[in-house]
Specification:
Length: 164
Amino acid sequence: VRQMWEVLEQISGLDFDQKLGFAAAILVFVLVLEIYVVMRVLERYSDKHQAPWSESLFKPLRNRFYLLTVIVILNITRWWLNSDDMFQSINGETGPSVQSYFYAAYILVATSIVSVSIKHVLPSTLESIDSEMTVVLSGGHHLAVLVSRLIVWIAGVNLALQEI
């Protein structure tokens, strides 16, 4: 445990450029780990799943999770490079802080994840609950998906704009 603290102290004592390089290396390492380990495990699970939407949903979600990983690591790196900024960015006395833009980005990525999930899951779900006795307008499922996604995006953009 003591050796770990010594390594952390050495890393914290690096110059700005060295910290930036270290953070870039960590970003690459985390993305490689996510691509080649985490997503491969999730892909195997997705392949075993029998839902019709599972395979088509995996690729868009995977890309959004990569984007979320990059945003989170950039935010943590920003705090690490300038620890005073972490406390200054919370109060935002001079206008929207940098942290507010990160919060808005988190909200928009989450909105995108929900929207793409609706796009792929809702049509097959609606088709599975249809019976011979129900009356469905032609294109009714597409309308439900469109309206649901529109509501999600309006709410997400509204929340993101409130952060800025």
